[in-house]
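2024-03-11 09:14:02 DEBUG pipeline.ingest accepted 1 chain
2024-03-11 09:14:02 DEBUG pipeline.ingest length=390
2024-03-11 09:14:03 DEBUG pipeline.predict start
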Amino acid sequence: MANVFTDEMSLFIKIFQVMALYPSSFILKIYSLFNFGITIFIFISAFCIFPVLENDNSLSLLVGGLVFVGILLTNLMNITQAFFSVNQQTEIYRKFDQIDLKLANQLLVHTDYKRIRRRLIVKYILLCLVLFVIHVISIVSVTVYGVAFSYYVHLIIPVGVIRLRCIQNMFYVDLINEKLKSMNQKLNDMISRNHDKMAFILFSHKLQKFDVQEKKISSSLYEQIITLKQIYGKIFDVSNLINDVFGWSLLFVVTQYFIEFTSNGYWLFLALENLLEHSFAIQSLCSIFPIAILLTTMANSCFNCSENAQQLGVLIHKIERDINSDLQNALIREFSLQLIHEPITITANGFFSINFTLIGGMAASTVTYLVILIQFQLSEIKKTSNSTVS
């Protein structure tokens, strides 16, 4: 079987290989271990060679250290899981080839990879461009004000890898979404044709000239439903593979982003209250916006994927029942049960689903923890002022 998918999507695959997120060969595995070593060196450098945490505020120092260590640990998890999940990623590519083959040979639905590639390139370039502009503003701010320069320099590579890991996850989810869209479109066409054919059969019944034609119609629809059912099973397998490949990575990334979002919100408050230099306000905003953009985009991709899978369940029930084909009616019920029991859901290792509900929960939790941190800060200021007076 020709590897159409890997050929058409080679640009994205090569980018993932360069960033050690798909070490598919021995040399790339060595390169991945090298990246792992770089992250360890960054950790040692940050705490032993060029100390990055220098702040008179003990609470701010604690929060800064938590964010720094969290980013490095998340980067290590991304590289480690990518290293040990190469076979699963390769299996994803093989499954996509099998799905394309079934769509083309049995349903006459040909995947337009040029259109898909063009759409994904535009989407990811716009996303990366926005993130790059924000990153440039952050670097300029750090360079001009010279505040926490070592802190942000040490995190340039780890932050870049984490963001690309999110885009890699979106890439696979967006491809599943494209397959589900093709299935929905084909099912819509089948419903439309079946409605016209059932009307023809009803008319034929009245003329008592229906035997051979009716059997051909029922056989064709039955085979197409079987094919759709088989393809959905393979898409469900791909979604499980994606959860295996990205489960721990997503758990660490989302947890880290929650900590980082809350911490930068706290630093933004301190900067606005003149308890930190105003440059920290710019740095905090330059960290908050990329997190919000990435999580929202990733949640949108996963949400659309789940919605298109659910749409299949809505459409399958629009197929008119054939009173002369109990086998076909049973197949529709079976397909409907499959859609219920095998939902397409992207999760963080089963702890939570990646969707807009997660974003809402994170926002609510962030506000709660910000209030707690601010109360601690205010009490610390009060203690300092009291000791000064006495």
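2024-03-11 09:14:41 DEBUG pipeline.report The chain is about 85% helix and 0% strand.
2024-03-11 09:14:41 DEBUG pipeline.predict end
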